Amino acid sequence: MSSTRHLDRSVASAFYGQFPTLRPVQEAAIQPILQGKNVVLSSGTGSGKTEAVLAPLISLYRQEALDTDSLAILYIAPTKALVNDLEKRIRLPLDKINFKLAVRHGDHDDLASGVTPNLLITTPESLEVLLLRKEKRLSNVKAVVIDEVHLLYNTQRGLQLSVLLKRLNQFTDRRLQWAALSATVSVLSNVRDFLFGPVEEAVFLQYPAQRTIDAHIRQVNDEESFLRLVRRLVEGKNVKLLVFANSRRICEKLVSVLARYKLLEHIVFAHYSSLSPELRVETEKKFASSRCAICVSTSTLELGIDIGDIDAVILWGAPASAESFLQRIGRGNRRQNKTNAICLIPDDSETPLCDALRFLALIDAAQNGELPVLDPYDLYGASGQQCLSMIASENGRYMRIADLCKFFDHKVHLSRPTIEEILAELANNGYLQRHGFKNQYGADQKLYELIDYRMIYGNFGANSNTVDVSQESKKLGTVPSINLLRVKPGMHVRFAGKSWLVRKASAEGFILEPLKARSRGEAVDFIYPGGGIGFDAFLCNRMWNIIHSEPIKQLMAEELYRDVHAFGKRLVGICGSDQIPYIEVAQGYRYFTFGGYLLNKALALITNQWDFKADDISLRCASVINWGSIPAEPKDYEPVFDSLFEMSGNQSLYQTLLPTTLQLQEYLQNWLKDKTIIEVLRRLQKSEAVRVDPALFDSVAADL
To answer: Structural domains in the chain?
Structure first.
């Protein structure tokens, strides 16, 4: 290991002493980091990315950190579970070199003890808390690591972190060295551009995963057949299975199905975000230490949390993106550098062939190492949150607009006029107030409410943060926490089919009591933001390509293969890849574009199809479309941009507080920055429509 000679000897021994050789990504990272350069590093799951950046960073900054008893390195992970897992993984090598480690997130705060660590692992939201409080121990930070950066790229939390790092730069009065890590990033420079701006220099290190994917797709006919499958996998063997479901409801359903079998009931675990942190950690420990166990999880276990070696990953339904698929299957069988993935089409699927094609598209993309290419988004919502946070950090005192704007100067689209527009809208909504004659803004009443409700720190979607609704000690359910800003004590609300009086509203939730008949009057409803844009164009377009290639027989159960093969053969015999199949329906025509919901909606609007319905693979409209006349460039759809916009449950509170024009601009990033959108538009523009038998798509497309 000649490259480790450049590392501090004790650090090299602590991190790499038990290994005969370094992995390629670890070799590559040493020199640029020791030279003080920034890096964006992408390599496969379990390839040692954390050690690749920490060993040289600690070599650089260890001695000064120990001499001054200071915090030198900040390690940021997108979830609390990953923070906890990282702490377990790196504590041993850090203890060997006397490098103090601490964790800080919403459920755990080592900083409260007063001890100064040399390395702090935290989340973006906890960094927000520390900066808002002006935590003095941050002032000596020299370097920042951002893990699983794909979960932050092109998101509000990513924009939040981008500005937080600018604030941290000012707080430390130095330019920080940084490293961004991921297993699923397509264009590394895009990560740099989104988080730090294109002028920031960085070294890009990409080492694609070289793991064999052994995948098999089959349809589950009923719950009993799922139980039989799992029994065959585990009976008489020491096997660990990780089952991914796409919702908490399905997760609970599958656990209950497996627990019916006596030999399984004590080795089945559930893991999802609504469970308490203590219960999730307990589940992770039990599953990791078990020789034979099954864990059914939502996306909470997609990340690199250490739950031991997994013999096989089972997917109950296809995930919504190629990145999510890669993360899920990447959890399996790391000992043999091979992924065993069982892809199940649920028994209640209305379109089993479509689900099979979706899985085939995901497997094909994973085997070829291809991911969607999305240019950096121009986002706005988190900039409003950051302005509020900075004013809150000054105890609500007035701040100059110019002083706020300097934290956005690495984002070209967040110019001073745009920031002023956002500030004015926040003032109109009661969060800020403008100084009478100076270019300054200070806190108004609703900003203090955000602080009291602990909603000032985050940019999660409105539906992802919930609070309890209770009647005395009885929990009635949960509602999005955004309701705390509009439903106040003394108000009347409707919930669970009844009218209630709101007795208390706090960060813990709502306490209700039944309304007496004579007291009933006007009542308001809790709000539940909803909506979404379906599967992305990358996945849908790849399904179209899969149809026009010979499916690999070994990937599917025999009966399913026959159905998929027969469908593809019939369709290809009628319609080539440069044609668009359509069927005649009572309401007009249904075109199968395989372009994604957003693209199909845009096509309907630009061709004046006002009576239409769209899904991920098709568009139903009243009149014939002249495909040669559709624009092939996303920007040319500007006349219908206003109609393309949809409110979404994925919006954060701060997005909903933006001026309407900026909400539209944010939404349009999904349309304007996706390279696959251009590819599909060009394909469709050059295609001709071909009528096919309506029965052909019965098991591929649901009714519209």
So the answer is: 2-207 (3.40.50.300), 212-349 (3.40.50.300), 381-452 (1.10.10.10), 466-525 (no CATH), 537-697 (no CATH)
